[in-house]
Amino acid sequence: MESSSATRDGFVKTKGYGRIHYREAGQGSNRPALMLMHTNGGSAHQYEVIAPLLAKHFRVISWDMPGHGDSDRIQRHFSIEDHAKALAALMTALKIKAAHIGGASVGGSVTLAFASLFPTRTLSAVPVETPCRNSDEWGANWHHTEGNFGLPMQTAAQIKERVAVVDAALEQRWNIDRCKAGAWAMVDVMWGIREFNAVAAAKKIKKPMMLVYGRKGPTIALKDRLTGAAPKAKLAVMENSGHFPMLDEPSAFASLYIKFCGAK
Questions:
Q1: Could you tell me what percent of the chain has a pLDDT over 90?
Q2: Which of 82, 110, 215, 262 is in the most buried spot, having the most CB atoms within 10 Å?
Q3: CATH topology for 8-260?
């Protein structure tokens, strides 16, 4: 018999966003849904370690965003708002009226967009390591951005610059996911982040929100932009994490969700 915390694969067909792949852990109508979104070039597998921990409290859904993983390829530019609407379509297909919404990096941007666009479908918002550069800052750093995402395969040494512990299994999963997405889709995500006004979205959010940063990550230097836009939001800094707290400190990261989202 399958454990209630075992992770299961699923697909749904959506109008306008193609077929979306997701992984689910946790069962029971009495459990609130928790939607988790991966970083650029990742997949639902980024949450494989913490999903069983969270499944004791939530119905956990981690998706492959359009153009990534086993979801359909994208044939046009997707804005961050487009991704938020795709998430809403996934929830509708799964008959989830409202959920706790969380995601890292681009997943954090989508979290902000979703919570601002769909307040009645948002129980709480947890943007993690969310980029918040302005247009000039993105332009000045764009060569590095293209170098990071325009070349899908990365060596273990390159991955270790961003993740605390890299073994052979993580290196393989990392490159499988990046190759599935491909250079064009990953760079398109970065254009979406570059065009997205995270501060304006954060100002609109009235639901409970927790902003999470890794002390060693690339976004904490600009955290005041989002904390200033959402002064009532809780701030959590993970001392031993970089841009990937679900990989660097999975148990502590899961505990943040459990405590903040009020799971019993």
A1: 94
A2: 110
A3: Rossmann fold (3.40.50)
